[in-house]
Amino acid sequence: MKRVYVNEEWCLGCHLCEYYCAFQNSGERDMVKAFGRDVKPVPRIRIEDIDGEDGIHFAVSCRHCDDPQCVKGCITGALSIKDGVISVNEDKCIGCCTCVLSCPYGAIVVDEGKAIKKCDLCVKNGNGEPACVANCLNRAIVFEERG
After folding, report:
1. 19: Cβ–Cβ under 8 A, 6 or more apart, which residues?
2. Which domain holds residue 72?
């Protein structure tokens, strides 16, 4: 199965992947409206910066594990797996954050609403490639199958 991988040595720490992820999942067609005054889009990927601007930068996003602890820990069944992709049913999520505590990678995001957010590889958006990958200027983020 294809997954998102990050080549840390190529990551510049520009955070563009976060913006494009949030925009892609905002439901808006216009980026200006997606990042309006009253709207705070939540990216499902985040860049961690270690030792400032010239240090190490790496992306944290869902690894779509083969044996996902987040799905096992979800008390409402809001997290499910289909074709290797772990998705959230926001109508079922009660915001208990058990999945956040269960994820060994820290890849699940708490939103201001009651439902959690996580990478779903942009499956719902149908572009064939996650927005973070398609818009990474330095090609530090890739969508590929690895052994």
Report:
1. 35, 43
2. 66-118
> Can you give the C-alpha Rg of the chain in angstroms?
15
Cβ-contact 18, 58 below 8 angstroms: no
Residues 93 and 130 in one domain: no
Name which of 144, 116, 115, 110 is nearest 130 in CA terms. Answer: 144
As a whole number of angstroms, the distance between CA 104 and CA 62 comes to 10
User: Over the stretch 82-118, which tens digit does the pLDDT of each residue have?
Assistant: 999 999 999 999 999 999 999 999 999 988 777 899 9
Closest CA to 59 of 135, 109, 97, 4: 4
Token pair of 119 as six digits: 């990478």
Six-digit token string for 132: 């973070």
Residue 130 tokens, joined: 């996650």
Please count the structural domains in the chain.
2
